Structure prediction request, 288 residues.
Amino acid sequence: MASQTRLDGIFSSGMVFQRDVDNIISGYESGKDAVEISISGQRIRATVEGGRFRATIPAQSAARGLSITVQGSSRIVLDDVCFGDVFMLSGQSNMELPAERVLDVSEEEIAKINLPEIRQYRLEPQYEFDRSKKCELPMAPWTRAVAGEIMKMSAAGLFFAREIHAQEGVPIGLILNAQGGSSVEAWMPLALLERWGDYSSEPKRFSPPGALAKFIEDREASVAEWYRLNETEGNEVMATKIPAGAENIEIPTMYPEEEGTSFSGSVWFYKEIEIEDEPSGPAMLYVG
Prediction:
């Protein structure tokens, strides 16, 4: 295999570094003892150790449209690099929720946004319970708050970034690492969790190679089997129209409504919706 230089996934064209502080740029080099990083007339040399290099870029003031060149066994050029303010977006689904999912209440507002200096890097979750192994930053683009890219950006992050951009007048970088449904324990180091009890069993359970994949496979099979066992004849017929004898209910409600009663089985929920105009394209119906 030919020698090559490779940057960690977050370092790509269009990225945003934090202004007014030193920044790190890192990656892999397989054929030389050192690499050279060039930016704004500055040259930075980084030694390669164990196939890895790590260089410090001196603090830069707010800037736009810069180029960074990394020269090792191969040459990498990052274009349209900015220095501004960078924020980490952590949390659950309310932070992860993309702009395309809030169009029902914010379509006009989102359509007006054309702010290419607001950019987001998506840090996809990596499930690794073996602490001796290192997770790599994924290869993912920096998406901009412009038409064609904006819909996958965090809605909460987007509106926050728009406000900060208006106040500060500098590029805004968002690093989205939110994960819907994650527990607070999942965000905490095991050593810290030990203050509140023994949480070691779960990481140990999934540490062996392939244990997590096997767990997910078994869970999906179990869910599929549950659906199979709960299938009833006439599903297609039931889905075409509201059957005679269906009860009217007010939402929100509990079902069954009678206190002390229980129910096991499937519940069909029907709601008639009238559309004034024929849809002009693909449509989405939110049901929860």
About this structure: The first strand starts at residue 5 and ends at 7. Residues 184-229 form one domain.
